[in-house]
């Protein structure tokens, strides 16, 4: 992570306690960090991330499958980049 951060990449980890993904600028060089379904992102890795993003969920859903979370965040990154032009 350090080497990529030194080259200008920002790391965003997915966590329910993060900032709503719609309220973040995800248009730059982004590396996504997705934890496992049971424990999420480890505290050490989360500490080294630049931003923590949450995915909005409604109803009784309290977490997403890791691959689904990666897909949702990836879509939001692409959406923001396309909007920016």
TrEMBL record:
MF (Gene Ontology): RNA binding; RNA methyltransferase activity
N-terminal signal peptide: none
Residue intervals of the tRNA/rRNA methyltransferase SpoU type domain: 1-75
InterPro entries: Alpha/beta_knot_MTases, rRNA_MeTrfase_TrmH, SpoU_MeTrfase, tRNA_m1G_MTases_N
Residues in coiled coil: none
Any single biological process term in GO: RNA processing
Keywords: Methyltransferase, Transferase
Gene Ontology terms: cellular component: cytosol
Pfam families the record matches: SpoU_methylase
Protein name listed in UniProt: RNA methyltransferase, TrmH family, group 3
Native organism: human gut metagenome
């Amino acid at each position: 992570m350090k080497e990529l951060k030194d080259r200008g990449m920002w790391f965003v980890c997915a966590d329910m306690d993060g900032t709503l993904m719609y309220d973040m600028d995800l248009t730059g060089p982004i590396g996504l960090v997705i934890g496992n379904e049971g424990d999420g992102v480890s505290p050490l890795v989360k500490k080294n991330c630049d931003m923590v993003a949450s995915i909005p969920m409604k109803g009784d859903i309290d977490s997403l499958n890791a691959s689904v979370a990666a897909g949702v965040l990836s879509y939001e990154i692409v959406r923001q980049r396309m909007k920016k032009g």
